[in-house]
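sry for the spam today, last one i promise. struct tokens for design, 263 residues
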């Protein structure tokens, strides 16, 4: 029997377009050569132009899936994305405490097309139970402002560390200026510069970035390199973004360089 690749678990919403959510996370994991697993927190009724409806999963079913999976398989890294409701979030938080694994948290609050993807009353528990203890949190500017009250990345970032995360990547992709991201760890801050891409309206960039960071960490890469490589992976995918429907372009995900070089 060959040695198993590292396992990475996504706990996130389902996006039938394949452009975000667990469907996209599994594609990202496969392209990085890690074994992807997924527990959906919600179904969405969705087309490429918008999220029509969010149908949260039954919290006890999310819980049962996690117990069955985590008593059998130990993921190297867990990626947490859309959690939909407070009840789902609390069940996930309980089980992440029971089965500890490093976690990458994409604090998904709202879809670019408008609908909320986490109910408002859950935001406090998102901070106290999911962000606290995270290896890295990846808010965009809106999420950083909603969770910290600060829109300036240099003021928002330290607040995520005070909340108990080991590191934070504040993504500038929705800013007016260049899409620079600020990475703050307990050892210091680094600005990751980016050239703005034409297809910025692409769907699923946040999901892809956090999934790629999780995959890189599972491969044993340091956080700084994992973030830099994941950012390159998303920029590359944005460069090849394509339209399959009426709405937002989807990312053209391609295996990162290290993976294509070694095959
Ligand atoms: N649907 C699901 C299941 C998601 O997890 C997300 C984002 O995290 C979205 C939709 C929204 O994606 P975007 O805001 O990139 O269009």
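last one done:
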């Amino acid at each position: 029997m060959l040695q198993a690749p590292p396992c990475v678990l996504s706990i996130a919403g389902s996006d039938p377009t394949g452009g975000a959510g667990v469907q996209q996370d599994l594609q990202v994991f496969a392209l990085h050569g890690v074994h992807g697993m997924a527990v959906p927190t919600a179904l969405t009724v969705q087309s490429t132009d918008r999220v029509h409806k969010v149908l949260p999963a039954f919290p006890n079913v999310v819980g049962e899936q996690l117990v069955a999976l985590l008593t059998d398989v130990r993921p190297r890294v867990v990626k947490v994305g859309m959690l939909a409701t407070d009840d789902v979030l609390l069940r996930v938080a309980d089980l992440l405490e029971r089965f500890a694994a490093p976690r990458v948290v994409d604090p998904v609050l709202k879809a670019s097309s408008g609908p909320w993807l986490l109910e408002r009353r859950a935001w406090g528990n998102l901070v106290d139970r999911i962000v606290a203890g995270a290896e890295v949190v990846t808010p965009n500017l809106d999420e950083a402002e909603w969770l910290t009250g600060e829109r300036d990345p240099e003021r928002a970032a330290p607040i995520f560390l005070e909340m108990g995360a080991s590191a934070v990547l504040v993504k500038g992709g929705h800013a007016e200026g260049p899409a620079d991201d600020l990475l703050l760890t307990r050892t210091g801050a680094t600005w990751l510069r980016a050239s703005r891409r034409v297809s910025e309206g692409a769907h699923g960039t946040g999901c892809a970035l956090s999934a790629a960071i999780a995959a890189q960490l599972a491969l044993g890469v340091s956080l700084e390199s994992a973030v830099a490589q994941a950012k390159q992976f998303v920029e590359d995918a944005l460069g090849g973004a394509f339209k399959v429907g009426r709405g937002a372009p989807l990312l053209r995900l391609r295996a990162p360089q290290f993976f294509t070089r070694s095959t």
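Residues 7-239 form a domain with the UDP-N-acetylmuramoyl-L-alanine:D-glutamate ligase fold (CATH 3.40.1190.20). ok im logging off now
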